[in-house]
Design brief:
single chain; 298 residues; nine-stranded mixed beta sheet
Length: 298
């Protein structure tokens, strides 16, 4: 890694990744990016001065730090492996960071391959929203080689208000899966509650006032309320499809620990049915509409 600001490669410019790239560029970091699913965010980053690469290997070759912000472990693995993958472009001292929500076992397997090249893989999943990413106020749950983590900490602190180090590789992803299990389960509970209140003919604002005055009040309650009562789905920019994936990963984690999850079953089933109803790309706060339709069989 150079003595000046490290060069950064970024793979996965979705809503969160694009916001992170913008924040890094505002702080003077030189970036190399690659198109994944959509071009708009890549084009915007290039207009701000980023270079665009044709392959993940070139991203790695041109960068001190390679960052991932993609949807699944399979997506990370596909960009990491192969002749044109990140691992093929690694040299000693480089650091790869997976900001996504991935399976810890996949992370540990990839970490061994990265270490064989003299580089380091960190898992550093994120909390909070794309809007907060643009302000450098993410929660970052880091894990992996401590020396590598400390080398990249100044960059992480550009992106995160709270930068945690939790220990061995895979720990960050494990904590994030537990975190998302709680978040998505509560989101479903609150969404159902608002829909049930409507079905009972209650004033939703009175229901919210009563719930929010008690110990069950939370940020998630406020996110769901924003859509249920105000029609604003922007407070929780996270798709139902991704939420279901995270619950499935959590269940897989539990199975691997031989401690099957009972409480995740409801959220998993609700997200599955919502996806089948064509809601996969809608935000989690819009699960209120799924529960609204449950009473009439839709």
């Amino acid at each position: 890694m150079s003595d000046d600001k490290p060069t950064i490669g970024f793979i996965g410019l979705g809503a969160m990744g694009a916001a992170m790239v913008e924040q890094l560029q505002q702080h003077g970091y030189r970036l190399t990016v690659i198109a994944n699913r959509a071009r708009a965010a890549v084009d915007a980053a290039v207009q701000r001065g980023a270079a665009e690469a044709d392959t993940a290997r070139i991203v790695a070759e041109n960068s001190d730090i390679i960052m991932f912000c993609v949807d699944t472990s399979a997506s990370v693995e596909s960009r990491m492996n192969g002749d044109d993958g990140v691992i093929a472009g690694l040299t000693p001292g480089k650091v790869v960071i997976d900001f996504g929500t991935s399976l810890p076992e996949s992370t540990r397997r990839l970490g061994a391959q990265v270490a064989a090249k003299g580089a380091a893989l960190l898992d550093a999943p994120l909390g909070r929203t794309p809007a907060m990413a643009r302000e450098g106020r993410l929660n970052i749950m880091g894990a992996g080689d401590k020396e590598a983590f400390e080398r990249v900490r100044p960059v992480l602190e550009v992106l995160g208000e709270n930068v945690f180090y939790f220990g061995a590789l895979g720990t960050g992803h494990t904590i994030k899966l537990i975190n998302n299990f709680v978040t998505q389960s509560v989101a479903n509970v609150v969404a159902e509650a608002f829909a049930m209140a409507e079905a009972a003919g209650l004033d939703g604002r009175q229901v919210y006032d009563a719930m929010s005055a008690g110990p069950g009040h939370s940020g998630i309650m406020d996110f769901i309320k924003a859509y249920a009562l105000d029609g604003d789905n922007s407070a929780m920019e996270f798709s139902i499809q991704n939420a279901r994936k995270d619950i499935l990963y959590y269940a897989a984690l539990c199975d691997g620990l031989r401690m099957p999850s009972l409480m995740s079953a409801g959220a998993k089933q609700a997200f599955l049915l919502a996806e089948r109803a064509g809601m996969g790309q809608r935000h989690v706060s819009e699960m209120v509409d799924f529960y609204r339709g449950a009473g009439d069989g839709t």
